[in-house]
Amino acid sequence: MPHSVCLTYDFDAVAGWTSAGLPEYRSWGVYGAETCVPRLLDLHDRTGVPSTWFVPGHTIESFPEVAGEVHDRGHEIQHHGWSHDPLPSFGSREAERRDFVRGIEAIEELTGETPTGFRNPAGGFSEHTVDLLREFGFEWDSSGTERDLRPYYLRERGTVEPGQPYRRGERTDVVAVPVPWHRDDWLQLFPVASDPQFVSYGHEPDVFNRWRTELRWMREHVEEGVLTLLLHPQCAGRAPFVAELEAFIDDVSELRDTEFTDVSTVVESFSG
Ligand SMILES: [Zn+2]
Q: Which residue intervals define the domain NodB homology in the entry (predicted)?
């Protein structure tokens, strides 16, 4: 089996800006939907590379034509909540479940297909999230990073108590495809003025150099490695990034032991 590179997009659009920042920040969401997504889809058309899109229901209902294009041009659309609110912020299983179901329905309405994969919106899982994934028969999740270059099985939430060792939860049959933070374009290239963690723009070639080094290391040291990139259209669709992404796609396409796949394909061939 060859190694895999998965290009995944969190198409948050305005959903990522509803509760944070100034109203003008929402223009980034519109820019992402109307300018960047078409740009990225054109790149995928040109190169024939598949990808996975996590699309909140809020985005589907705000930009239905753009979300429809993603599907019509052959990319899988998976679950990313409806509102994109952090899962722990719902405060109850019922409230989280309502948003979860609404997100599924939005995707079904758009594509006619039920999503099988999930990525948590900002903020991580709540104590109910794994339960909901199982209740609705999700096959995989791509939110965490218990490993970095190989899938694994998601566990029930572990427990952390003062003075006690970490107790890992029971293993589930939901496959987890990791996305470490250093492969998230947003954390490196999208500073938000009000957030002291993100104070300056990174340099696109530096970010891709890091990913290229990791890919090279994976090919040398890992069997059937999986390198997943977490991209956001409003960040990844900016011209300097698109140019670097196209060069990266061209270079990876030359490799005989590595191929681009969507996440569902990686999950299908994972056997533990
Ligand atoms: Zn998101």
A: 23-261
